[in-house]
């Protein structure tokens, strides 16, 4: 029963660290109310920037920004872990107090081959979009003419344990202004996924996108993974989804990196070379004006929070960035995935206010699409789930220009910006119903050999059971196993040109 735990494990530590880093940013820019310098302290920052344990108590820590220490308290009942660098519950593993850390390598020197800054005259829709600070609405629309798109996404495995949770939110009685059911996007990792359940969501018109085969840890692996690693993990997962959930490759166009640790140019080159239409892995720092999606033709207009954003140009490849979520009074902290903001338990009002504040920041400012991105753990909390359902129903009934769309639907709109008043007949947003392959799935029990151990794994699919559990380096789950790079290499000499000759 590792499956739920595995889904939950996703990217929590990184984001909490980023949460605090964002606070430093905000303060440096004078955006937060508390601009007053903290009382003088004897604490000396071990490094110019970063998070450091308070030597006196585990309940506090320091954010160092340019060698200046800001004292911070952990939320009540949480303690600062100096290895993980975030506040956590008290467990035996809690690393309290200053812990010596080995020197990390020097920061990367800026790439001299960075693409140019956005040139709005040269970058034109439908294939290119950018603006100098990333906040401009495409098509020259006024905010009042622009639909407020909301992107619901669900990261991780999809299976019988979370199917009902997601279906409750995506209930067909919840509709967009054109009468079609609201839609969301599933970034699916392979391990523990039931292709039978996933296919039902796809049949109902939701989008399926790629979140890797293994979703492996340690999290930093993804920042350093090679081109070949990404090809196996991401293109391999597209093949698995194609084969076992019977979803056409042309429908599998998006990817998001596990733990939101992007792998720079290698990751984006795989997306580009293997014909993905978009990536959605890059975090936008906290800002009161959110950023619109953009193509990667030009230099990214905002700061790269994660440090490993691409530094080359990938013309026409869309980035649907993750705007940092936060409530105006700071309750819940800041996060890029909604489930990673930390609220006091039993605090429905704060959660509701958090959702409303983020909606307003998009709706009342520049209508940049609002991303509400979740792991299943949000839905394991009944109170939070109910708050979310009420929020969705509230804004749906109050606003006729709010649409819950998939990532691909968003890109269709970006390519062809259409006024909110004309969207009821906007073809890419029409209702979508696809066929399910079966009503009764096969329950496959297949071996997975990893690091010399063989375990049985279970997967539900309407397709034929594979011989082995499909995995990195063997996406087909066949006895032999083929790698994506081998197939790509074999395919190359047989270009269309040579066939014609
Ligand atoms: C969807 O909503 C309807 C009406 O509110 C309800 O009867 C039904 O049980 C819901 N279905 C799911 C799957 O939650
Ligand atoms: C959590 O939900 C339960 C059941 O709806 C409700 O009674 C309780 O008040 C909620 N918690 C808070 C503090 O809002
Ligand atoms: C897979 O989907 C296609 C439509 O995309 C359909 O024609 C075909 O019958 C499906 N295959 C199975 C096994 O259901």
UniProtKB/TrEMBL annotation:
Enumerate the InterPro entries for this protein: CE4, Chitin-bd_dom, Chitin-bd_dom_sf, Glyco_hydro/deAcase_b/a-brl
- Record has Signal as a keyword: yes
GO MF annotations in UniProt: chitin binding
Provide GO CC annotations from the record: extracellular region
Pfam families from the UniProt entry:
CBM_14
**Domain called Chitin-binding type-2: residue spans:** 42-98
The protein in question is named: Chitin-binding type-2 domain-containing protein
Q: Source species, please?
A: Trichonephila clavata (Joro spider)
The upper taxonomy is: Eukaryota, Metazoa, Ecdysozoa, Arthropoda, Chelicerata
Q: Which gene encodes it?
A: X975_06810
């Amino acid at each position: 029963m590792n499956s739920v735990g595995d889904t939950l494990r996703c990217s929590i530590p990184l984001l909490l660290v980023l949460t605090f880093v964002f606070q430093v940013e905000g303060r440096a820019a004078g955006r937060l109310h508390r601009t007053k310098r903290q009382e003088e302290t004897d604490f000396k920052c071990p490094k110019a920037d970063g998070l450091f344990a308070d030597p006196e108590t585990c309940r506090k820590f320091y954010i160092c920004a340019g060698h200046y220490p800001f004292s911070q308290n952990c939320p009540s009942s949480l303690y600062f872990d100096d290895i993980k660098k975030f506040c956590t519950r008290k467990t035996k593993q809690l690393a309290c107090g200053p812990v010596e850390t080995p020197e990390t390598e020097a920061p990367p020197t800026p790439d001299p081959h960075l693409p140019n800054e956005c040139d709005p005259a040269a970058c034109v829709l439908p294939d290119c979009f950018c603006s100098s600070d990333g906040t401009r609405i495409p098509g020259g629309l006024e905010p009042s003419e622009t639909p407020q798109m909301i992107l619901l996404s669900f990261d991780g495995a999809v299976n019988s344990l979370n199917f009902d949770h997601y279906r409750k939110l995506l209930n067909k009685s919840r509709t967009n202004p054109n009468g079609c059911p609201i839609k969301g996007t599933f970034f699916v990792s392979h391990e523990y996924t039931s292709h039978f359940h996933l296919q039902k969501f796809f049949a109902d018109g939701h989008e399926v996108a790629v979140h890797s085969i293994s979703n492996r840890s340690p999290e930093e692996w993804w920042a350093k993974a090679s081109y070949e690693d990404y090809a196996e993990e991401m293109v391999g997962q597209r093949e698995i989804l194609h084969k076992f959930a019977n979803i056409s490759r042309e429908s599998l166009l998006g990817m998001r990196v596990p733990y939101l640790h992007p792998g720079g140019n290698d990751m984006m080159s795989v997306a580009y070379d293997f014909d993905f239409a978009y990536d959605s892995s890059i975090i936008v720092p906290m800002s009161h004006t959110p950023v619109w999606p953009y193509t990667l033709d030009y230099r990214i207009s905002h700061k790269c929070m994660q440090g490993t954003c691409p530094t080359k140009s990938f013309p026409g490849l869309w980035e649907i960035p993750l705007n940092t979520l936060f409530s105006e009074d700071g309750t819940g902290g800041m996060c890029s995935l909604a489930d990673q903001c930390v609220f006091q338990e039993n605090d429905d009002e704060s959660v509701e206010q958090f959702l409303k504040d983020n909606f307003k920041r998009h709706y009342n400012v520049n209508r940049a699409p609002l991303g509400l991105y979740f792991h299943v753990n949000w839905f394991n909390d009944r109170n939070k789930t109910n708050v979310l359902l009420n929020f969705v129903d509230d804004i749906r009934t109050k606003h006729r220009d709010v649409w819950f769309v998939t990532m691909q639907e968003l890109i269709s709109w970006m390519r062809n910006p259409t006024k909110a008043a004309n969207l009821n007949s906007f073809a890419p947003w029409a209702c979508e119903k696809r066929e399910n392959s079966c009503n009764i799935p096969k329950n496959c029990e297949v071996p997975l050999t990893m690091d010399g151990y063989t375990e049985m794994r279970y997967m539900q699919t309407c397709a034929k059971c594979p011989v082995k559990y499909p995995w990195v380096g063997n996406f087909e789950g066949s006895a032999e196993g083929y790698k994506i790079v081998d197939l790509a290499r074999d395919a190359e000499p047989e270009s269309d040109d040579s066939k014609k000759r």
